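Service request form, structural biology core

Requester: graduate student, group of Dr. S.
Request type: structure prediction, single chain
Budget code: on file
Notes: please return the result as structure tokens.

Sequence provided:
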Amino acid sequence: MSTVRTTLDRPAGHAGDLERADRTVVALDTPLMRAVERHPAGRALVDGPRTAPRSAPPRPTPRPASRPAYRLTRRGRLAVFAAALLAVGGLTVGLGTQVIATSDAGDPVPSRAVVVQPGETVWDLAADANPSGDIRETVHDIAELNSLESAGEVAAGSTIYIPLY
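Core staff response, request fulfilled:
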């Protein structure tokens, strides 16, 4: 521990009179205080304010950019992710409405109901329904009208609709 004695002039009780006063400052000699005294900002506290400011140290030359100039925090990355997700959702809704299933009925196809007999195939029914046309096209029309994935799904005894040609 070190002690510093200083003399201080301060105004006395009467106008124009100065009174001398002693001031004792106790400075602790600790590693922290020594570090403060070595640091430029700490020297200003110990030595008092300087009259002329020092010039700023030269700026370092910029390094080549290995990383982008911006840096996102976790919250920023979450905000960018949410904005991208919202944009993709908006595009899906905006562009996905081009094909819409409605409750309106489509144009009715003139057809007749036929009960499939044992041993009878859709190919046989198509040949009977449109003897002068392309049987493959007629099988496709029957499967589309009855929502069949393939022509082999028809079982004996089931009722299917056959378009009129």
